[in-house]
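Run: sequence + S-adenosyl-L-homocysteine -> complex structure.
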Amino acid sequence: MAVRQREEFLLNRKEIIEALKAEDFSQVYKRAKEICERTKGNVVYMRAIIEFSNVCNRGCAYCGLNKYNKKIRRYNMTEQEIIERANEAILAGYKTIVLQSGENVRIDLPKMKRIIQFITGKGVAVTLSCGELPREYYEQLRAFGADRYLLKHETSDESIYNNIHSDGSLKERVACLKTLKEIGFETGSGFMIGLPGQSIETIADDLLLLKEIGCDMAGIGPFIPHPDTPLRDHEKGSTELTKRAVAIARILLPEANLPVTTSLGVLDKKERLAAFDCGANVIMKKVTPDEYKDAYQIYPAEIPEIRVEEDRKNIVTMLEGIGKKGV
Ligand code: SAH
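>> structure
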């Protein structure tokens, strides 16, 4: 084991910073790709994401769902609607359903229980992404059968964190991540590239925090300004820096599942495919019903009509084109 770890050339903080700043990053990309091929083969995991509610009681300055945004129509999908959509995604072949929402401590646990049990009853995994909740809630959700949870730390810099969040703290967020791990969730964190005040050093610390938490999954995506948020005039994040961070995450966490974040694809379709050459091995596809898809805009994006089965086939074909097998 020790020998294998040395082979991985685990990067330290100084080396990460140097690599992120380097003119030529090709050796790191190459290494990340090799590690990914060794740990994941040519397989890309496809996840269907249902954004079941945009009700949120947080004021995150980057996010279009933040509680101060009065321009969006808030919705809560009914149990029936969620189950129907999940079933459609399962019939189309998805093996994981991601249930994402704004943060709302009034989350209806009995309803979640029935939905989770419906999905897992079909032999399909449930990943939750519903923000910070009290430990007892996480415990119950785990007991219902959900076994993965995504909660990005967003930034590892406390002062940046405080500047862009009107609620909560970095400490609380990281504590939630540790709780999720303790409870036995496969735990996912991640962060954004291009937040105000972020430096290369911050990104290095973000990457090291993923490692410290012991993330099983990590989503790294470029920030995209949303016109109805306080960060509307802030510049979007760099796609190159995003790919570099993904590559380093692969080296630090050889076995982790690293999605190509949707925001990367929104900024640049080509880059989304390129990320699979940088160590990413997961792709998420929105299957939220058309009726709600436009009301769930964490960042502005044009979302074409959603056809669950056809969309999945198109992704499989797209992945085949780069020698990957979507499962
Ligand atoms: N309420 C849940 C889900 C948040 S949305 C939670 O708190 O975990 C999922 C992710 O989208 C966020 O974690 C954030 O990293 C990303 N995101 C939000 N606004 C964004 C923006 N303007 N640009 C890019 N990514 C954004």
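>> summary
The chain is about 45% helix and 15% strand. Strands lie at 43-53, 96-101, 125-129, 148-150, 186-193, 217-222, 259-260, 282-286, 325-326.
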